Every structure is written in C-alpha cells, then in structure tokens.
Amino acid sequence: MTSSVRLGADRHFPARPIPDTAVSSLHELTTADGAKVTGVLRTIPGARTVVCLMHPRQDFTHHVLVPELLARGMAVWTQGTRSVNNDLNLLHEQAVLDMAAGQVFLRNSPFDHVVTLGHSGGGTLAALYHQQSGLPPGRRISRTPAGRPVDLAGADLPVPDAAVFMAPHLGQGVLLERLIDPSVTHETDPLSVDPELDPYSAANGFADAPQSSTYTPEFVAHYRAAQRARIERIDAHARELAAEATAARQRFKRSADVADRRRALAPRIITVYRTDADLRGTDQTLDANERPYGSLFGSRPDLINYGLLGFGRLSTPEAWLSTWSAVSTHADFLRCAPGIGAPTLLVELTGDQAAFPPDSAAMMKSFGSGDATHRSVRGLHFGGPLSPGEPAGSSLAADVIGAWTAERFPLAD
Questions:
Q1: CA–CA separation, 6 vs 260, rounded Å?
Q2: Are 183 and 279 in a shared domain?
Q3: In a domain, 335, yes or no
Q4: Gap between the Cα atoms of 84 and 39, Å rounded
Q5: Residues 259 and 385 reside in one and the same domain
Q6: Residue range 3-22: average pLDDT?
Q7: Angle between the N-to-C axes of helices 172-179 and 217-255, in degrees from 0 to 180, rounded to the nearest 10
Q8: pTM for this predicted structure
Q9: Shared domain check, 159 and 46
C-alpha cells in the first residue's frame, strides 16, 4: 500500500444530457413557517406526471436521474431544504414543511400526478412526508425530539400519488449507528481507541485493503452493541445541552435578562469523530451483495474514518436528536413506511454500500401500500455502473421507474 492511493469514492460518472426539448424554471417558495426554499422544475412537452427528487442535506438540482426521467416522458421537480449543503442545524421536522411547500406548488401546477422519488437519505425524508401527510392533522408530529414546537398540524401537506425509492437507506440515524466507531474512548480525542473494539485491528479480524476482513459473530455483536451505547451517550449529552438552552430561553422570557438571552443563543456544537467504520465496508461477507470493498466515502475506510469526511461530524444538539440519533429521530424508514398508502416502488442497487439486502427485505415488509413492488438492478449506491463498460445503475433504475410509472399513470399527452 502507498500513501498515493486515492481515498475518495467515485460518485461522478458520465450522465445522459438534458433533452433539448426540456424547459427549466426556478421557483422560490415560502414554507408554512415562513422559511424560503427553492426548486427547479424541468418539463417536456406533454408531460402529465411530475417526479419530485429531494434530499434533506444535498442539492439534487443536477441529480443523475433528472435527464433519465425527462427522457422517459416525465417532468422533474428538484428541491432543496432550508438546510441544503449545510446540515449543521438540519431538523427533519422542518424538512417536512420544506417538502410540503414543493408539494403544494406541484399540486397547483398543470400536472395530473405527483410522484415522490427518494434516493439515499431522500428516501427516509419522503417516507416521513408520506407518513405525516396521511395522518389527521391532530396526530402529526408537534415537536422535534429536542422539544421545539413544529406546526405540521397547521400546514397543508398534499398526499402524493405514488412513492418511488432508489437505493434508500434506513435513515440518517440508523445509517450512522452502523457507521459510528465505538472504539472511541474520549469524545474530544479523535485518536483515542479501545483496542478490543478497534475495527481496523488485525487482532479483531481486520485485513489490509483490499482483502476482505473476517470478523467473528461474537465481535460483530459486541461491536454493534457498543455502537448503540455510543449513540446513547451522545444522545444524553445532546439532551443536556438542549435543556440548558431551553431553560435559558424560558428565563429570558420571564426576566428579559440579556445574559439569559446570550446563554440561549450561544451555539452548542456536538463534534462526533470517526463515523466511517461500518464493518460491512471491510468484511464483504456481512449482509453480502455485489458491492466493492470500501465505504460510501472511498476505498480505504480505515483511513477515511480518521479524516474530515463522514456523516454527523458536526451538529447542534437539536440536529443530532432530529437527524443523526437512531434512538431519537422521527426519520426512521421502517417506522414511517407503514404510513405510505400510495403505490410504492423500491429499486434496489445490487452493489449498494449503504442499503443492504436485509434492509430492502425489511422495507418491503413495512410498506403500508397494497401496491408495493421490489426490483433490483446492477449498480452502485450513487447510480454508477457496477463494473466498467456496464450501463449505469441510474439508467437501469430509470427504465424500471419509467415502466412502473407508465403502468399506473399516463406519462404524456
């Protein structure tokens, strides 16, 4: 091994161009709680069905599926949340309000059918939206896990006509629970290691890349229990910090003391080191599929784990509890999916490094829709080809999505 090995994942690959007949328009929307969000509508002549692509954290404006869906006769709406590309304070409950603004806009547009398409973390946001939009207003979420009021009951949440998922994982929090390194012994020291839990120690079954590691069932069970315990410890810290800020706000309301106002405003940032340590990234026999060695972030998780990249590295206490905590978040795919009553399509990518075969099986069992379809295509998590020279997974998925949607809704005049 040499230090010159490229660490990053191959997320970018040649995509189909936007059709010449497509017309694009930019729209600024106001959410029910007064936030501003933007979306891009791309349509083609005669399109009657519009597909909504949205992610809680990322900008999907140029998502690889956009030209693929346009080429198959569908209009495409890509929208950001108020926290796009800056998830320091990402609250999924607010992201539902952001998505609702887009759904209201699309219902007032000249389309007959609105279909949500959740890719990766966008899948759980879409599932949460479907769940909440299908509930009577009085049963909707009224507070974030940290206790902040959120008025989903008073918002217009149009119910989409169908739900499509491509390579959805089980939620940011559930994903992080499998990625977080439980061998960290001191949360303020990124190099602290408990050797009995170190996933990158040969004594625990690790083999140098790209050879697959071999972890024993006993180590896997011990490791996963320790991952859960670390999440619970960070949860407890987050709740303590959130409670301090809440108490300061309440004191300020009573006293108008500027010192309390400062305490309420002072940022409390949680730093979480080493979050690229999923055992499945290095032991390819665990939840086996056709994935290559490595993680979503690259081919050397044993190094990337110690770097800057990774999920949930910096967040406010509220954002941790709302988005990154498998214990506290409302955005849990398997808890939300029973609330999806619309026709549902799940497209699994056989080389996925974030959503694994057991996850897809659990999702299919959890859907509340009586019309739920599962299809598998060869490809990587971000839609790239599984092997050089093969079609992109995104293109194969678009074939499935286009055919499935056309069976249910006329795509064009």
A1: 49
A2: yes
A3: yes
A4: 11
A5: no
A6: 73
A7: 130
A8: 0.95
A9: yes
